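Annotated sample (chain length 313).
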Amino acid sequence: MAKEHGIDLSTIEGTGAGGRISKQDIEAVIAAGGAPAAALPAYSAPAAPAPISRPAPPPPPAATPGASGAMAHVALETAVPREKMYFGNYEVHPMSTMRQRIAEHMVASKRVSAHVYSVDEIDMTKVAALRAKSKDEFEKRYETKLTFMPFFVKAAVAGLRAYPTLNASLDGTNVILHKEINVGIAVALDWGLLVPVVKNADEKNILGIQRNMNDLAERARSKKLKPEEVQESTFSITNPGVFGGLFGLPVISQPNVGILGLGAIEKRKVVITDSIAIRLMWSRRRWKTGTSRYCKKHLTRLGGDSKSKKAAR
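Output written by the structure step:
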């Protein structure tokens, strides 16, 4: 499997007995975006790293061409000499292979894609009321909880159908327009970040999307995802709102051309027909090309359309 995906086993930190590399370790690297057989930072972390008081600064990483993580570290060194980073009382905790791959992917994405941010708010009152009315019966009948995420996926699908240039990948100077709509849903884990993919999301209803998401998220946490289940996304959604704060600025998951970031849903005072009303508002972040501004109306209909019930089917 490692040979097939061009992974250098010497770069993988084994989690098996005695530090052995397991199949799950290789799948985790593949799930994080793959690992080209390129050199990682030159120092080797101990098999079971323990906090060290006042260690000598580790040797500088090798600046391997194309290794975005290494290049980012070198850029930091140019601004801040390494000896200036180690002062006072400190501990050194080597990054896991998974986190190194995530960092490299994010740095590379910023370099490849020009990120443009747009922030909007949507009145979620009707959707929240529909969910509150249906969630108990939904859970009783289908044995799964009804969350807000399937509604956002359906809204994103509507926008991608109307503006297919956003359901795309970039290959150099070529734009690949995908016929399938595969939505990646970011899942934060204690040991890293994965983006399992809901394949053919446009062919699924609310129940189908919810079941698919729950299954993927559960197996992501137990490290049982298959490599193909984190590949072939055409668009991504992430939910930094669960961590608090007004909004976040996610990085596009390559090779997608856009990502939708969801803020928190909360009650807020707003003016409705010259009077103050309490409404559930959702902060929405979009990172796409200029076409995304026209796509906005399809997403805003999620909360404002009086026919919201149809979106749940």
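Annotation: Residues 125-142 form the longest helix (18 residues).
Annotation: Confidence is low (pLDDT under 50) at residues 35-46, 63-69, 282-290, 306-313.
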